[in-house]
Write a structure and sequence with these properties.
single chain, about 140 residues, mainly alpha, 7 helices, MalT-like TPR region domain-containing protein, Methane Monooxygenase Hydroxylase, Chain G, domain 1, globular, TPR-like_helical_dom_sf
Amino acid sequence: MRSLTALNEKVVLLRLTGRLDEAMTVANEAVRQARFSGDRELTLGARIRRAQVMQYQGKLAAALQELSLCVEEAQNHEWGTLEAVSTLSRGKVHFELEDYPAALVDFKVAVFLMEKLGASLDQLESSLVAVAVTESYLGS
């Protein structure tokens, strides 16, 4: 499990430093290792991180499809935190695709889920900004 944690951290760091091909390779390995562990919740988290790498690579259709599947799985298993993260990530992809109505729905749902989980105002801030920015694009 420590190895999986290290892989997940490496995916995030590689993505943030723009080393996207390496990030995708490590993300795929993290998904494989998580599946091997048999823990579906860990696997879902790894899939979300992999989809975020896809988004950064500009593979928006693939990222959107994967994140939609992640949202659905999180909902089915009532994994609130993963549902919030995958919904927020999907909203970002919708925003990049300039599908502002869908982005706004996802951002609002993510805020609702985070509030339900007891997130602080500091934790909600970026999601609330995403809602406000998206509303400005829609002229709401």
